[in-house]
């Protein structure tokens, strides 16, 4: 498990966590050095393992020390150092992602309790907007994401990076944080290991070789639809329609992603 995977594990616990289990882990120290974890007082409960049936026990301060009540042993003292808590510094994480993806200055905004706009990234197929959402594991998470993005301006591509789970979301790529970036221990910062263009499925940048077969075919289909006056006015609607036509004409071949087809539509229409 790398440092980012450990951070994802801590984010997935949805709150403060005890620092004690991680103290001897070099990855934990790296996250602290990078500002991705921050102190957050003391934990409010611990697992009592002194009973036949282990249970959560509330921390109390009695007789001049911290501890918890055990049905078998009574008051069990606990060292204050063992109760120190940390929590993820999500605002700092978003700043790190903004830098790792080389977004232009500005653009960071918290859109809800669990979601931030990280920034914009130019790809060969158009402009992508990158978001960070703490998790996409449940239907409630997806609803939360939809509510946050409702007022956002649509771009050619949208990418949501998540720490836990990556359920699909309409017209949006979702990608696990630990697969997208890694910790540079020497510089105490995050480095991308997957580009935004690759994550959203943008077409590769032309290198002067043979033109893309997809591009040639889609431009031909778009020209035919325009000549027949059957093209949809909206880019998204036309992309969906021409993609269906492509799949009908080439049923035994792989088709490009919808965001890529949207890029072809924009390119064909000159905008």
Tell me about this structure:
By secondary structure, the protein is α+β, with helices and mostly antiparallel strands. Helix content is 33%, strand content 28%. It is built from 9 helices and 14 strands. The protein has helices at residues 3-11, 26-33, 90-100, 139-149, 177-180, 196-200, 213-227, 235-249, 258-269; strands spanning 17-18, 37-42, 45-48, 55-62, 65-70, 74-77, 84-88, 109-110, 115-123, 126-135, 157-164, 173-176, 181-184, 189-192. The strands form 4 sheets. The protein has a 5-stranded mixed sheet with strand order 8-9-10-11-12, sandwiched between helices. A 4-stranded antiparallel sheet has the order 3-4-5-6, with no helix packed on it. Strands 1-7-2 form a 3-stranded antiparallel sheet. A hairpin with a 3-residue loop joins strand 5 and strand 6 (74-77). Helix 1 (3-11) crosses helix 2, helix 7 crosses helix 8 (235-249) and helix 7 packs across helix 9. 31% of the residues are buried. The mean pLDDT is 83.
Residue-averaged pLDDT: 83
User: How many helical stretches?
Assistant: 9
The SS-based structural class is: alpha+beta
Number of strands: 14
H/E series: HEHEEEEEEHEEEHEEHEEHHHH
Quick one: biggest sheet? 5 strands, mixed
Helix content: 25-40%
Distance between the termini: 44 Å
Regions with little confidence, pLDDT below 50 for 5+ residues: none
What best-fitting shape do the alpha-carbon axes yield? Answer: elongated
Strands in their spatial order, largest beta sheet:
8-9-10-11-12
- Give the percentage of residues in beta strands: 25-35%
Rounded to the nearest angstrom, the radius of gyration is 25 Å
């Amino acid at each position: 498990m790398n440092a980012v995977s450990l951070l994802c594990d801590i984010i997935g616990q949805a709150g403060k966590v005890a620092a004690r289990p991680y103290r001897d882990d070099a990855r934990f120290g790296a996250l602290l050095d990078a500002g991705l974890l921050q102190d957050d007082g003391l934990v409010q409960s611990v697992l009592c393992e002194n009973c036949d049936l282990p249970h959560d026990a509330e921390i109390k301060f009695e007789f001049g020390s911290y501890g918890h009540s055990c049905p078998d042993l009574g008051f069990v003292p606990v060292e204050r150092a063992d109760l120190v808590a940390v929590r993820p510094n999500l605002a700092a994480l978003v700043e790190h992602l903004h830098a790792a993806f080389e977004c232009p200055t500005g653009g960071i905004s918290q859109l809800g309790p669990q979601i931030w706009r990280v920034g914009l990234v130019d790809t060969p197929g158009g402009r992508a907007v990158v978001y960070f959402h703490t998790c996409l594991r449940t239907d409630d998470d997806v609803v939360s994401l939809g509510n946050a993005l409702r007022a956002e301006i649509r771009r050619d591509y949208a990418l949501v990076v998540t720490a836990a789970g990556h359920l699909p979301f309409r017209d949006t790529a979702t990608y696990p944080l630990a697969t997208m970036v890694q910790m540079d221990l020497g510089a105490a910062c995050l480095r991308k290991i997957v580009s935004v263009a690759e994550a959203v499925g943008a077409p590769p940048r032309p290198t002067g070789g043979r033109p893309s077969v997809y591009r040639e075919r889609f431009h031909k289909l778009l020209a035919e639809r325009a000549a027949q006056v059957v093209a949809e006015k909206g880019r998204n609607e036309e992309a969906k329609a021409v993609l269906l036509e492509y799949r009908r004409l080439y049923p035994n071949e792989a088709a490009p992603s919808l965001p890529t087809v949207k890029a072809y539509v924009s390119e064909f229409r000159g905008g």
